[in-house]
Design goal:
The complex is a heterodimer. Chain A is an alpha+beta fold. Chain A contains 12 helices and 8 strands. Chain A has 3 domains: about 5-120, Alpha-Beta Complex (Sufe protein. Chain: A), CATH 3.90.1010; about 135-225, no CATH class; about 250-325, 2-Layer Sandwich (GMP Synthetase, Chain A, domain 3), CATH 3.30.300.130. In chain A, β2 and β3 form a beta hairpin. The longest helix of chain A is centred in the last third of the chain and has 21 residues, at about 255-275. Chain A starts with 5 loop residues before the first helix and ends with a strand. Chain B is built from 13 helices and 13 strands. Chain B has helices at about 15-20, 40-60, 70-85, 100-110, 130-135, 160-170, 240-280, 305-315, 325-330, 335-340, 345, 360-380, 385-390, and strands spanning about 5, 65-70, 90-95, 115-120, 140-145, 175, 195-200, 210-215, 285, 295-300, 320, 320, 350-355. Chain B is globular and about 70 Å long. Classes of the chains: A alpha+beta, B alpha/beta. The interface between A and B is large, with 50 and 41 residues. The structure holds pyridoxal-5'-phosphate (PLP). Pyridoxal-5'-phosphate binds near residues 76 and 148 of chain B.
């Protein structure tokens, strides 16, 4: 099992501020049961002084998720909203005497919940519904905004680290291209701002030998490390994919061209699905609706929706126009 | 504090008689079985006896059908790679989505390097093999069918004897990973169409790092390890004499205790399941209710996360394991539960209790005593539980 600090264990076994806060006037909810962890943060804020008078939480998740949530409540009580907003996910981890690297996403979840609660207090819409830039990881519902924040705050420079801190890419990893592009973009911005050394920055694409080497190393260590590095192995596998969601929109296509492109895109994705024991077959194209047959691991389960999402994104990117991918009812 | 070890599918305690039997082979009987002198002859005789003991437990026709290996993983790899090499004109493998990584990872690798096309057959909500898909995947292109006898996470048993007959019809070799089944279900390989079978010492109260691969006489075989002529050239390397002697005795003892596994141990397992299901709302048993190992209970608790349960159990002195993502460092729940389509609300909170002949009733009672409180505490923390409580009353999952 994990090497948790005594403080993590203490906050897990005897969580402080667990439960429902009826008089909460700032509530932030992040995560989902399908992702394996979720946190509802409830704050009672003095409307005049903006001091956080009380904080409570409810968490579905592992030991470090529960401990991080409880730590967060302890950290924010007594602070003003503005002071609280200065907290980073690292502050949560530090409060607990550190978290295992694979569990850093638990502290990020706490940070995100705090942002959501403050937005709720101020009557703003918390943009957890993927409106903050593109939704990058469909498996865990992680958008561009959250990844950028985690990358900046923790100076992340590898795909594996992004996965450990945000969970993005921890599932099917059809989002590898997008994830890689985003990490490179944010790192580049950080270099320009002078907060990250040029040499440390992640660079996208096979053009950069340093990045390539990093990937093969990741794949190799992943083969040794088994599950822990699974995402990295897949990362290396899909890297040479010719399809980029960032490709410029092509000129209007004939129907035949469209179908051919859709076919090609599906062919590109199939090896990836097969790796998970699934498969996908094009049945029909009707306007902007693409009818596919999913089989194997792709059928029925929640994974189906993420598979469909991934395929949809790729086809849309390839065609330059949005399409809807509809799985045919089988069985 | 009283403790309860209920993780016997992970590994078992070595029987003290087995420990005693192996010790002399580190000291007085240290010889190399291949040597001509008296030091070697004694060891050589001990290996022969061990081979017979394994043969008896498997109901194999000949003792030389047993090849000693370093464990379940080596046996699995050997079987798969041997089949592909022997059947040079065929390049497909049929397996299932719920196999142990010792099978799945090898298959995925062979696929990746373009060496084989692999069919991963799915399972239903009880973990039973999709027979229609299995038949459809069989063809004269299939070199090997490899399907586990019993699943390590849920205990669900595949009807491998029948599946082997089907594989024979298309001329494919049939291998089964029986690491979890040996010693718990009766096996008679003599009359079966099974070509190869893997077993592992440490799952049946023997030591870790020793196992065997059964290769039916006349079945085609190519070694994985090449070198000396040990094991009739089928597995080179100086024999692990202490380990092999231990495996032999462990198999003999497993045969003696098989009845107990299926009566006393099974009754304890059933008591555990009943006790938990009766006192904890919204939980159900994962796996085939009719054809399951007698020692395994995999229980899904809705709206709580597995690692959190295990941490509490561990503090109460209870050792179990989970298919939860968080314990393994991966971010998704177990591939077995995902293949069974167990909803995420429950897959993240699935706990495996696995018993053995070493398990005593107070250990099971301890689980029944502390588990309801643990689940209740964690559910009180869970933001999903309050909303789900209304649904709890008429909770009737199709899996249970
Ligand atoms: C079904 C199954 N196959 C293979 C293995 C691997 O066996 P070993 O640990 O002896 O390599 C295990 C045990 O972990 C198992 O449960």
């Amino acid at each position: 099992m994990w090497d948790y600090t005594d403080k993590v264990k203490d906050y897990f076994f005897n969580p402080k501020n667990a439960g429902v806060l009826d008089e909460a006037n700032a509530v932030g909810e992040v995560g989902a049961i399908s992702c394996g962890d979720a946190l509802k943060l409830m704050l009672k804020v003095d409307p005049v002084s903006e001091v956080i008078l009380e904080a409570k939480f409810q968490t579905f998740g592992c030991g470090s998720a529960i401990a991080s949530s409880s730590a967060l409540t302890e950290l924010v009580i007594g602070k003003t909203i503005n002071e609280a907003l200065n907290l980073s996910n690292q502050d949560i981890a530090d409060f607990l005497g550190g978290l295992p690297p694979e569990k850093m996403h638990c502290s990020v979840m706490g940070y995100e919940a705090l942002q959501a609660a403050v937005a709720n207090f101020r009557g703003e819409e918390w943009k957890d519904d993927h409106e903050e830039g593109a939704l990058i990881c469909k498996c865990f519902g992680i958008d561009e905004g959250m990844i950028e924040r985690a990358v900046r705050m923790n100076r992340l420079t590898t795909i594996e680290a992004v996965t450990a801190y945000t969970k993005a890419g921890g599932g099917c990893l059809t989002c590898f291209d997008a994830l890689e592009g985003l990490l490179a973009k944010v790192n580049a911005k950080m270099v320009a701002e002078g907060v990250l050394a040029e040499a440390e920055a992640y660079k996208a694409g096979g053009a950069d030998p340093a990045a390539l080497k990093k990937k093969t190393q990741a794949a190799r260590s992943a083969e040794n490390a088994g599950n822990a590095g699974r995402a990295a192995v897949r990362a290396a596998d899909v890297a040479p994919s010719p399809v980029s969601p960032l490709a410029p929109p092509p000129k209007p296509l004939t129907n035949l061209q469209r179908i051919r492109l859709i076919e090609e895109t599906i062919e590109d994705i199939r090896p990836l699905l097969k790796k998970d024991g699934g498969d996908c077959e094009l049945l029909d194209v009707d306007g902007s609706n693409v009818l596919v047959k999913l089989s194997g691991a792709c059928v029925g389960c929640q994974a189906a929706s993420m598979t469909v999402g991934g395929i949809q994104e790729r086809i849309s990117a390839r065609l330059g126009v949005p399409v809807r991918v509809i799985p045919a009812k089988s069985h | 504090m009283s403790t309860a070890y209920l993780d016997n599918n992970a590994t078992t305690k070595v029987d003290l008689r087995v420990v005693e039997a192996m010790l002399p082979f580190f000291t007085e009987q240290f010889g190399n079985a291949s040597s001509i002198h008296e030091f070697g002859a004694h060891v050589s005789k001990a290996l022969r006896d061990a081979r017979k003991q394994v043969q008896t437990l498997l109901g194999a026709e000949f003792d030389h059908e047993i090849v000693f290996t370093s464990g379940g993983t080596e046996s699995d790899s050997t079987a798969i790679l041997s089949a592909l090499e022997c059947m040079a004109d065929r390049d497909e493998i049929v397996t299932s989505k719920v196999e142990h990584p010792a099978i799945l990872t090898v298959c995925q690798h062979l696929e990746k390097i373009g060496r084989a096309k692999v069919h991963y057959i799915g399972v239903d909500a009880f973990g039973r093999l999709d027979l229609e898909a299995f038949r459809a995947a069989l063809s004269p292109r299939v070199a090997l069918v490899t399907l586990m006898w019993a699943n390590n996470e849920t205990g669900t048993i595949f009807p491998v004897e029948g599946l082997a007959e089907l594989a024979k019809e298309v001329g494919a070799l049939f291998h089964t990973d029986a690491v979890q089944a040996v010693g718990k279900v009766p096996i008679a390989l003599k009359d079966s169409a099974i070509d190869m079978l893997s077993l592992s010492g440490h799952k049946l109260h023997g030591p870790k790092g020793v196992g065997a691969l059964y290769v039916k006489r006349g079945s085609r075989f190519k070694p994985l390890m090449r070198g000396g002529h040990q094991e009739r050239g089928r597995r080179a390397g100086t024999e692990n004499a202490p380990g092999i002697v231990a495996l032999g005795l462990a198999c003999e003892l497993a045969g003696q205790y098989m009845a107990e596994e299926n009566t006393r141990v099974k009754a304890l397992r059933d008591k555990l399941e009943r006790g938990v299901l009766e006192t904890v709302p919204n939980c159900f048993v994962n796996g085939d209710p009719h054809d399951r190992l007698p020692n395994t209970a995999n229980i899904a608790f809705e709206y709580v996360e597995g690692e959190a349960i295990l941490l509490h159990l561990n503090r109460a002195g209870i050792a179990a394991s989970s298919g939860s993502a968080c314990t393994s460092g991966s971010l998704e729940p177990s591939h077995v539960l995902r293949a069974m389509n167990i909803p995420f609300t429950a897959a993240h909170g699935s706990i495996r209790f696995s018993l053995s002949r070493e398990t005593a009733e107070p250990e099971v009672d301890r689980v029944i005593e502390v588990l309801p409180g643990i689940i209740e505490r964690l559910r009180a923390l869970s933001p999903f539980w309050a909303g789900a409580q209304k649904a709890a009353k008429d909770f009737k999952p199709i899996y249970a």
